[in-house]
Specification:
- The protein is an alpha+beta fold and 164 residues long.
- Helix content is 29%, strand content 26%.
- It has three helices and six strands.
- The protein has a six-stranded antiparallel β-sheet with strand order 1-2-6-5-4-3, sandwiched between helices.
- Strand 4 and strand 5 (131-137) form a beta hairpin.
Length: 164
Amino acid sequence: MSRGRPVLVVIAAAVLASGCAETPKRTITAQKALERVDGYLQSTLSAVRGGLRFSGRKAAADSESGCTKGMSGSGFTGQVKAEIGYTASSVPADAAARFLDALGSYWKNRSHDVTRTGDHVGAYTDPDRYFLAANYYPERQEIHLSGASKCVWRDGTPRPGDDP
């Protein structure tokens, strides 16, 4: 598995639960969603860096994960999610714990819906419900900071062949 894959796997698992229960006729574009997610992560890093250096930007504006009709997971609508992630390496456990604590507090103070379990902190942004997460991998001493949009149309509206 490549270094960037754990970030996308964590994002995919986290956002699958959110799905795309409602399929709007118009959304922002996938590129705008990617910019918005990255904006959340950049403002987070500006406020809560904790001496860590994040790099290795991995971005995709075409994830089909969770963009289906209903709860069955079938019936792809044609919508996509924008996903982005960064990695900090050589992070000792104590520094990771401080960073995750500060991150959770920062997101909570921004009125995000925050959960914290062990080496993971996640948040749904308010009001647009994008998903942000940080995961610490002690065996590799890495923190992966990632985010994903809700389902959007690639170009802001359905393409021919899409199934709104």
